[in-house]
Amino acid sequence: MSPFLTAYLARLSWTDSVAVDIETLRGLHLRHTCTIPFENLDVLLPREIQLDDQSLEDKLIHARRGGYCFEQNGLFERVLREIGFDVRSVLGRVVLSNPPQMPPRTHRLLVIDLAGERWIADVGFGGQTLTAPIQLQANKEQTTPHGVYRLLNEGNDWILQFRHHDRWQSMYHFDLVPQYIADYVAGNFWSAHWPQSHFRHHLLMCRHLPDGGKLTLTNYHFTHQQDGHTVESINLPDVESLYLLLQDKFGQGVDDPKNGFTLADLAAVMTAFDTHGEAGK
């Protein structure tokens, strides 16, 4: 086992063996989303988000930080490939907010071929991210530890939806066209630098819990949800409380010389938000 894979499994507190099978894929998928938080702090700091293998390893594993889809699924793809899975990334178009026209490809997800079946995996979509791989089959409701999902198929286009109470909500469109590293670099740059990107206007964080719950943060507002119900909702009073919560609830590492962040760093970010939680003008 490589030093990288050993360090990753230690990050997840994974003590079982790994193999090219669905049990390993499901187990790692869930443990990853319950350990490595989804977050966009580097966009706000601002720091350039690097997608090379060493940068992702240093930030998400050794510095114990989180990241967003290009980082999360980039790391997970490397993990699965080193174990021996047949895996590759594709790009999707996010439609969660029902945009008036089709947006660019700014979401990275994974396609896995395993034992004659094709699966998609995604450990980087924030509060609605999959916490288990799902089969690439149309119109099949698939239950994960944190919700029910389905895929629709329209020609070459696939649409991932989640069930929200009594209706289905589309998350993103994607196809299976092979992508190049340059495509991920371009999508990552757009997500981090486009003036209207929501990653530039809110501090966003999510960590799923093994019991089916999830923790979310939007600016100063923290929630703990369980079985679709909010069991805790807090508006944090100040940046000091926020700094502690990031470490206590989301497991954020803050001490790494390159990828950590100080209370002063966080305070500088949060001064951009007014009392309504929107980015200041």
Automatic annotation (TrEMBL):
Molecular functions per Gene Ontology: N-hydroxyarylamine O-acetyltransferase activity
Segments crossing the lipid bilayer: none
EC number(s) stated in the UniProt entry for this protein: 2.3.1.118
Designated name of the protein: N-hydroxyarylamine O-acetyltransferase
Class of the enzyme per the UniProt entry, highest EC level: transferase
Family note: Belongs to the arylamine N-acetyltransferase family.
UniProt KW keywords: Acyltransferase, Transferase
Pfam families reported in the protein's UniProt record: Acetyltransf_2 (PF00797)
Family matches, as InterPro entries: Arylamine_N-AcTrfase, Papain-like_cys_pep_sf
